[in-house]
Amino acid sequence: MRRLARVASLAALTALALLDGCGKPQFSDAEKKTVASLALNTLPALKADTTNQYADVPAAAALGSTLFFDVGMSRDGTVSCSTCHKIDRQFQDDLPQAVGVGRTNRRTMPLAGVARDPWFFWDGRRDSLWAQALTPLENPLEQAGNRAAFAHYIKNRFGERYERIFGPLPDLSTVPANASPLGTDAEKAAWNAMPASQADDVNRVFANIGKAIAAFERSIEPQQTRFDRFAIDLATGSKPEGEAAFSPEEILGLKLFIGKANCVTCHNGPRFTDNAFHNTGVPPVKDLPPDRGRVDGVAQVQADPFNCFGKFRDGDESACRELRFIVKDGQQLVRAYKTPSLRGAATRPPYMHAGQFSSLDEVVAHYSKAPASIEGVSEVHPLDLSDRERAALVAFLKTLSE
Predict the structure, then answer these.
(1) Could you tell me the sign of the dihedral formed by the alpha carbons of 341, 127, 44, 55, in that order?
(2) Annotated binding residues for heme c
(3) Rounded (10°) CA dihedral 395, 398, 399, 402
(4) What is the pLDDT of residues 80-135, one digit of tens each?
């Protein structure tokens, strides 16, 4: 009983330390500024994608939506983009590794706000949303199709819709039913036998498929949460009330997030991500193929024919600044993975690039201990958080989800 009384007394003292005499949360001016920078109302308007002239064309978005949910956009007619990006699960799938035609080696990322990213996938191996949308279509473990088959499928099923948006389809009458530079040996041979002009025609149709899907995905934006209502009240000097009011534990967690725990260094801005790549010592998953993260992603994005320097980009090269100044090598790229947005994270376990951790408690424990990376150098250092502090951080993270 005495121990319970001491715990209750400590909790009461903590609450008093975090609230002023009027019951308002106590934050310094610097802390208030940081909290305000994380609120969703500071998210700027979505910029135009000059590499995709159809990005904001409603008809393109409508076609993209159709293709996103169409299982016909796969080799065996059973897998669509929405197989892994489920509309009722924040456009992800709750699995440690995504499963399409086969099981992949990475976790599905949610799509809210994805159009604002400069790089795509956990390793940044694509540099535009439309180039990213193309990749799963031909991945043998995801949708496992090939670009010649997709061109024929578009012509046969969506020809009129396609032509209203993108103009006349090329003559595909002599294009093989199945051909791709990335497919089976037979598909590669068929692709290599095609005239260069015919391959360009197929690639153009394929690129436009990605541009339509990207136009749809641009509409997927993050939603306001309890944290945003709290942040607005804090910024305006109002006393948070109702669901906007934070418990003392949640306030402590927020203070740790922007202070001692230093989570805000990487999880910053209204989407809680710096859009960069970091080695944080996350362990590999047994029996999965070797995965070195950004260091391999750099080589892939440079080799991608659909990257910003390629012939299928709309607009001029002024949009290619990220690719032009890409960091191409260095120890910091080894086992570095993209900083995910934390919005909605509490309701989409497991966590990390291959689902290594099953709960937010495990994630926070990992950062508290900061084990060394198996390769490269981890950027994080032990936080030595107490059990109470770790629990408070998790409590705060839950305010980022409805």
Answers:
(1) negative
(2) 81, 84-85, 263, 266-267
(3) -150
(4) 999 999 999 999 999 999 999 999 999 999 999 999 999 999 999 999 999 999 99
Residues making up the annotated binding site are 81, 84-85, 263, 266-267
DSSP string, 275-292: S-EE---PPPPTTSPP--
The per-residue pLDDT for range 198-230, each reduced to its tens digit, is 999 999 999 999 999 999 999 999 999 999 999
Cβ neighbours of residue 45 closer than 8 Å, sequence gap 6 or more: none
Q: How many whole angstroms separate alpha carbon 29 and alpha carbon 262?
A: 17
The model carries a pTM of 0.94
> How does DSSP assign 350-382, residue by residue?
SBSTT--BSSHHHHHHHHHH-PPPSSS------
What number of helices (H) and strands (E) belong to the chain?
14, 2
Region class of 221: left (phi > 0), else alpha (psi between -120 and 50), else beta: beta
pLDDT-derived band at 244 (thresholds 50, 70, 90) equals confident
In degrees and rounded to multiples of 5, residue 347 shows phi and psi of -105, 15
CB under 8 Å to 300, separation ≥6 — which residues? 123, 125, 126
- Give the other-Cβ count within 10 Å of 394's Cβ: 20
Can you tell me the distance from the alpha carbon of 171 to that of 154, in angstroms, rounded to the nearest whole number? 13
pLDDT digits (tens, 9 = 90+) for 28-59: 999 999 999 999 999 999 999 999 999 999 99
Domains of the chain in start order, with CATH, are 29-43+224-291+335-400 (1.10.760.10), 58-218 (1.10.760.10)
